[in-house]
Write a structure and sequence with these properties.
339 residues; alpha/beta; Rossmann fold; 5-stranded parallel β-sheet; two-stranded antiparallel sheet; 10% strand; globular; binds thiamine diphosphate; binds magnesium ion
Amino acid sequence: MHAPLSNFSYTAFDPYQVLNSMGKEKAIELLTHMIRIRYFETFAETSYLEGLVAGFFHSYIGQEAIQVGAVGAVGKDHGHWITTYRCHALALLTGCSPVAGFAELLGNQLGCAKGRGGSMHFVTERMPLGQGIVGGHTALGTGFAFKSIYQGDDFVTYCFLGDGACAQGVFYESLNMATLWSLPIVFVIENNVWGMGTHYKRALAMDPIGPSLAKTFGIESHLLDGMNVLDSYQLFKEVHERVKKTKRPVIIEAKTQRFKGHSRSDTEYYRTKEDLEAIRSLDPIEKFKTILIQNNLASPEQLKELDVRIKNEVYESLETAKKGMPCDIGDIETGVEGD
Ligand SMILES: Cc1ncc(C[n+]2csc(CCOP(=O)(O)OP(=O)(O)O)c2C)c(N)n1
Ligand SMILES: [Mg+2]
């Protein structure tokens, strides 16, 4: 069983206190985002299986609590948001509508990248393109954080990367530069246990990854239960305020699980049916719904209603996206700027 490990010391919070300070509206907003991402990925995968989506397809299902907590706490307009090819959720959270997301997958002009990027290259004003080179984008994130210092803005850069990316030299160089130059960046390692079919313990000489690296560079780090949206929200809120003042990098390692294969073409021979069942029992959405009910913030009926409403909205978005015109080859240079 590869569930999040319990023998590490997580940065955790009292759920009652977190809910109390965020209020009911914010709590429902976080749940709404998680459910929207879940249905987006679900319908997108169906479209992929129907042959409507070209290229690769990497689902974020299972990991929702991390980016929903982060963007929910920080606010999309207070950060630069950098991530990998597993980029649909962060795009939806930073300004891409479900219609523009589906259209991008379908390769049509309504897409967030005008249908020219596809699944791995969603883009928003706050998120400069999903990145396909494992680890390479940590240098890009470092550049964005440097820009904040150079231009004197108040942004913090959030750079999400996988456990697999932590074995890449460029991440070490990025950490070194970010620490040396005191850059306002939070590296968020989404440790979903696997880099394709390779267990992180077979690829990395350190565990926990984030705290070990942080010790080397003398910077702050946290282990986060990435299946708990309240912990995620509160941690990002506190870290954001600190980094704005200190301008020092921070590493957050979020222990999580992807419920789906690495990509749609993954045969998943490395996980058993029992592993998957155990992983699904950690569902961050179900966990959060239970907490909301226990704290009298919503009834089961209200949550069911919310679920159905979002499901219908997302389905309608897919239908709207399907009506878009195919990507136009004559449009290939639009939006590409240079001197
Ligand atoms: C530099 C580089 N090497 C190898 C690959 C092939 N590749 C694509 S995804 C992946 C695994 C990455 O795993 P991880 O960083 O844990 O992210 P996850 O897919 O789990 O989110 C690999 C090796 C690549 N895209 N780039
Ligand atoms: Mg991984």
